[in-house]
Amino acid sequence: MASTESKTQKIVEDELRGIDWNDVDQYPLFEGCDETAAKLEQRMCFENTLLQNLAMSLQEFHFMTESELETTIYLDFLVDNQGVITVVNIDKNPVLEAQLPQFSGIITKGLKSMPNPAPALKRGVPVKTRFRLPLQVTTK
Length: 140
Description:
Layout: H1 4-17, H2 39-58, E1 69-79, E2 85-90, H3 94-99, H4 103-113, E3 120-122, E4 125-127, E5 129-139
Antiparallel strand pairs: 1-2, 1-5, 3-4
Helix pairs in contact: 2-4
């Protein structure tokens, strides 16, 4: 007969195997996003709010380019378990970097200056999450 401790250990191990560690129960949320909404709506609210804040911070800058640009770059960032946003990577685009060398720094500064969201939750515990968002860069 198995001891109570070994039964408890088996239950814990079974529970841990059943958890999808690549998904969260609640996405990071900015103020104004509904924490009771479906997960897809939470993610859309988070991403849209983030992109709106980023767009507002970019309006402060007047970019001058030698030729028209139309490209998409990807922004990889983390939201830690405190809600702090950190840039992991911004795709390198030689044409964009040649014409707007300060662009990556401005994006990073814009992300750091926005209000921090509430962190993602997994089983009620704040966790860090990683995101990859496309940024369309167009000058005309």
